[in-house]
Design goal:
- It is a single chain.
- By secondary structure, the protein is mainly α.
- It has one domain (3-91, 101-197).
- It contains 8 helices and no strands.
- It has helices spanning 3-14, 17-34, 40-57, 61-83, 98-122, 128-146, 152-169, 173-197.
- It is globular.
Length: 206
């Protein structure tokens, strides 16, 4: 086994119980979201709570704060998916207009720059621009997912790709491996929601 393989295997088997629970909850939550199941929301709420605790324990306070935004988006998304579906079996998958995509991209980049410059000025962050980009566009992607906009999946692909490159550069093979899994799931999710949007699959079962 290569050194990279040994590092990944060690990360899987030597992780603390809470870390392993967090990984399982994250994977299950994404799988349920791909299926457009309402169960994705309670699982996701528990997952981001556990992730927030883990970040807080390791003093990654900005990342812990990000989980608060994720929690709020998931809670609102759960309410939105149930309330606004009306008499339909499920809330339909939507897509943003090109104008909305442009506005979101510009606003996200502006927020990324502001966050990164703040990290550079007031913290000793190693990768402030990477951290800011992942944080800002991760929140945007989570919000789009709560709105059931298919655009969340390509955005998650970009966010995860940036994370993979950053963690690989930092010699954190295990973390890069986990983000690679999430990237693959985002590709699957994009295809699955596209089929749902075009009516190629049956409505999701809650």
């Amino acid at each position: 086994m290569s050194e990279i393989g040994r590092t990944i295997w060690a990360g899987l088997v030597e992780a603390q119980p809470l870390d392993q629970v967090n990984l399982v909850l994250g994977l299950v939550g994404v799988a349920l979201m791909i299926r457009r199941s309402l169960w994705a929301f309670p699982v996701g709420l528990v997952a981001v709570t556990v992730q927030g605790v883990l970040f807080f324990r390791t003093k990654f306070y900005a990342d812990a704060t990000q989980q608060v935004f994720f929690f709020a988006a998931l809670a609102w998304g759960w309410w939105h998916w149930v309330r606004d579906r009306g008499a339909a079996a499920e809330l339909p998958v939507t897509a943003l207009s090109w104008r909305a995509r442009g506005i979101i991209a510009l606003a996200g980049l502006a927020m990324t720059a502001a966050w990164a410059l703040a990290l550079q000025r007031w913290t000793d962050a190693i990768m402030p621009w990477r951290d800011a980009f992942i944080a800002v566009f991760g929140i945007v992607a989570q919000w789009l997912q709560a709105r059931k906009a298919i655009d969340n999946w390509p955005l998650w692909i970009v966010v995860n790709a940036v994370a993979i490159a950053a963690y690989w550069q930092a010699a954190l093979a295990y973390t890069a491996f986990l983000y690679a899994i999430y990237l693959g799931l985002a590709v699957v999710g994009w295809r699955a929601w596209l089929r749902a949007k075009t009516g190629a699959v049956s409505p999701a079962k809650s």
